[in-house]
Amino acid sequence: MGKKVVFKTCNQDQSSSLPPSYDDLVPVNHPVRIVNAIVDHVDISALEKSCKGGGTSSHHPRMLPKVIVYAHLHNL
Fold it and tell me: In this structure, are residues 4 and 49 in contact, taking their beta carbons and an 8 Å threshold?
């Protein structure tokens, strides 16, 4: 049996000391919210199953596609 995969916490609704919420940084109509919502609905279960466990926690596999899609949309 493989080791358990542990992802870093990815809670975009979490509060922090400055600013009080990430929602305070991103306007309601900002395109990044659309990218976030779309990528959150993509089935990546096969990708998650291919992740090896053990070691320190890693970023969730959804994070990189969100960054790549948003950067591509803005020619970054």
Answer: no
